[in-house]
Amino acid sequence: MSERPTVEAYKKNIQEGKFRALKCSSCGAVITPPLGTCYNCGGNKMEWTNVSGKGKLVSFTVIHVAPDEFAPEVPYIVAIVELAEKSRVTARLAGFDPLKPEAIKIGIPLVLGYEKGKSGKNYLSFRPA
Ligand SMILES: [Zn+2]
Fold this sequence. Notes:
Helices cover about 5% and strands about 40% of the residues. It contains one helix and eight strands. A hairpin with a 4-residue loop joins strand 5 (about 75-85) and strand 6 (about 90-95). It folds into two domains: about 5-50, no CATH class; about 55-129, CATH 2.40.50. Bound molecules: zinc ion.
């Protein structure tokens, strides 16, 4: 019942559409993606925590040349999103034309969703709130 937080379990949760973050048991900092050590206090005890799925856009880039696995999906947008819980995640950005990046504004509110790529994998994906 006490499933130990691991990178594998974190990825498996995303594949199942159940994104969860880790929380430092010592200071409560929310950590994504999973690390062995808390970047706030250096603690190494982590537990699972649910997140609101709300965040804001910090940065993004448009991918035109992708690894083989994702090549059929170009162009696509990869964003860095700051969660309401203050942790940052890298995810796909949906709801915009990757060929019109000038329409994307830094700081816009986003909500978490999922996107199934042509590779058959589920990705974390955010779209405008
Ligand atoms: Zn901590």
